[in-house]
Amino acid sequence: MSDLDVLLREERSFPPPESFRRDALVGDDALHREGAADPDAFWARMARELTWIKPFTRTLDWTPPHAQWFADGTLNASVNCLDRHVEGPRRNKAALIFEGEPGDQRTLTYWDLYRKVNQFALVLDRLGVKKGDRVAIYLPMIPEAVIAMLACARVGAIHSVVFGGFSPESLRDRINDSQCKVLITADGSYRRGQVIPLKRNADKALAECPSIEHVVVVQRRAGAPGDAAFTEIKEGRDHWWHRLMREARNADGGFYRAPEEMSAEDLLFVLYTSGTTGKPKGIVHSTGGYLTAAAATTKYVFDLKEEDVYWCTADIGWVTGHSYIVYGPLANGATCVLYEGAPDWPEKDRFWAICERYGVTIFYTAPTAIRAFMKWGPEFPARYDLSRLRLLGSVGEPINPEAWMWYHEHIGHGRCPIVDTWWQTETGAIMITPLPGATATKPGSATVPFPGVSAALLDSAGQEIEVGGGLLALTRPWPSMLRTIWGDDQRFVDTYFSKWPGRPDLYFAGDGAKRDEDGYYWILGRVDDVLNVAGHRIGTMEVESALVDHPAVAEAAVVGKAHELKGQAIAAFVTLRAGHAPSGALRDELRDHVAEKIGPIARPDDILFSADLPKTRSGKIMRRLLRDIAEGRALGDTTTLADPGVVASLKDQYEAQE
Ligand code: 6R9
Fold first, then answer.
1. Could you identify which of 4, 450, 524, 565 might form a hypothetical disulfide with 512, taking C-beta atoms 3.0 to 4.6 angstroms apart as the criterion?
2. What's the pLDDT score for residue 5?
């Protein structure tokens, strides 16, 4: 049965529990009605919940596909996340509750965070960072990552966070693409009891990053900071974070760094994501529009209250970490849990231990994690008191109804609404989601657009589909939409706003979806050459380029295959150069090579050596057939192949290997 068929048969529906609805920020359809009546006015009202230096008078300027929101207003994101809280009763409230993988704990109040962000902003000044400069952040999930991001925002620098699991080459390409001036990293990062040598990785990258003038190194590893065998400090270029912070004082001896006054359209950050070509795209986000939507969605999707303890398990290296660990929750003055390590270290109960320890009330994670919890068994969460949990969230990939029900029963104990939130790096904030006190949920459906957001399903000719399957589009601009792709506006136009000729106002999301009779959306997954492996976006082209970079490889084709835990796994078909023979050792070598080039998340599960790849007469590799092979299906139409024999022999080989 196909995914679509499974979803079409899903008929369970869960209205908001009355006990939840009664106290919810939104317990009826008022917000949806407000958004539908006048989306611009709705977003303007959301924007006015922020603290502006100069209030905006214009809401939206829309010259498709370029939008500007609140363009004549000025503000600073760090003021919205910090200053406005320390002026009031939140001054001593916990902002971040941090737990490291080895078990170390640190709590930073809003005042602590405010002080450290100001100090690090002074450090950035001292390193010569100016408004508009780019700063790369390659850090573990530690409070310094949040401090670094907010300090960039304070001085008006554009941060570019690179996931700590990415390889030196991936880091190098991202730094070079946006010409970062400073890199902030750490000596190491804990993962499953091991220390990942982040600074050593960074040094490899930096050998080919001429734009970097300074490197700031957080001491994360236990032990002496001068442990030269592990961390090399290059005099003049590299600086220990704690030393710079100790000296960070302004002329009057205080720590205050006045926030830069930023236009709403000034850039807040660039974040790289995979697309259909080998080169990652630098997705560019604005200050005012981005913050408006990040803050509004955090408040209403998570029904955020003053006393909540909120935990989003994403990494800060992904957009979910940006919007729902840093900007959205902190703009709302929330208490956020930050955890550094793996969910199964030292035991498979770590997440539930953390939920109990800090009294987590709102928990937001990914389906790939939920499927792992399911596989490990309900006895792990059952060891803990999870009675404080009141709301659960899911993001990153389609959640299968079975995983949804398990989450509902074993984590939510039937009491917590689940918000399945669909959105993307490009959308900046949640776009399709239930409002937990107002929307009845259905297992596997992200339900309906957030107020002020307009979605539609279209066929490839641009015809709208009311009920059934189609391509997902967003049909009106929204404040947190990407503004462009760093250095390549044409690619921005071509990728997102050219799917339907003559309609430069329609945003093409790259996802397929279905809509049911109630207008609910069921996201089916990517329709382009982008894989979603355990919630991480990886372009097939990126993996192919990494493979052909190996001296033994002549040609490579990469496809996604369904995987029980990861959603999708990577299957690669490889032809070898003359003089190289297939072997198990070479297979392992190629898998490691990809992990080294891109990062461990891109390591292929399967590699099949083949004398040839199935191609059309015009020379295009037929990935559809490779997917059929990788997933063990009967082969689809092979009549357009130049040599139908190739694919039959591939299928035999693949099956023999399994
Ligand atoms: C936030 C994030 C975006 C892609 C997106 C889609 C998939 C995200 C989903 C979902 C089904 C959900 N996706 N949330 N699919 N249901 N609730 O993940 O951003 O890393 O850019 O990935 O993830 O395919 O297009 P990003």
1. 524
2. 59
Q: What is the DSSP string of 91-158?
A: TTSEEEEEE-TTS-EEEEEHHHHHHHHHHHHHHHHHTT--TT-EEEEE--SSHHHHHHHHHHHHHTPE
| Tokens (6 digits) for 428 | 């900046």
Residue 370 CA to ligand 1 centre (angstroms): 15
Number of Cβ atoms within 10 Å of the Cβ of 306: 11
Query: Which residue in 234, 129, 140, 228 sits closest to 182, CA to CA?
Result: 129
- Index of the ligand 1 atom closest to the CA of residue 526: 24
Q: Is 535 left (phi over 0), alpha (psi -120 to 50) or beta?
A: left
Q: What's the whole-number mean pLDDT along residues 531-536?
A: 91
pLDDT of residue 354: 98
Question: What is the identity of the amino acid at 58?
Answer: R
Length of the chain: 658
554 versus 511: the higher-pLDDT residue is: 511
- Average pLDDT for 312-334: 98
pLDDT of residue 135: 99
At which residue do the structure tokens 């059309």 appear?
616
Identify the burial level of 45 via C-beta atoms within 10 angstroms of its C-beta, where 0-12 means exposed, 13-18 middle and 19 or more buried.
middle
Helix H or strand E encompassing 657: helix 644-657
The structure's pTM equals 0.92
The three-point CA angle 450-451-457 to 5° equals: 60
Instruction: Report pLDDT for 11.
Output: 82
Q: Which residues line ligand 1 (CB under 6 A)?
A: 273, 318-320, 395-398, 420-425, 446, 509-511, 523, 525-526, 532, 537
Distance separating alpha carbons of residues 280 and 282, to the nearest angstrom? 7
Determine the pLDDT at residue 195: 93
- Can you give the pLDDT at residue 467? 95
If you ran DSSP here, which 8-state letter would residue 14 be given? B
Region at 132 (left for phi over 0; alpha for psi -120 to 50; beta for the rest): left
Residues 200-233: tens digit of each pLDDT: 999 999 999 999 999 999 999 976 555 667 889 9
Q: Over 90: is that where the pLDDT of 57 sits?
A: yes
- Counting beta carbons within 10 angstroms of the beta carbon of residue 414, is it exposed (0 to 12), middle (13 to 18) or buried (19 or more)? exposed
Kindly provide the ipTM of the predicted complex, given to two decimals.
Answer: 1.00
For ligand 1, atom 10: residue with the closest CA: 397
Give the 3-state secondary structure of residue 472.
strand
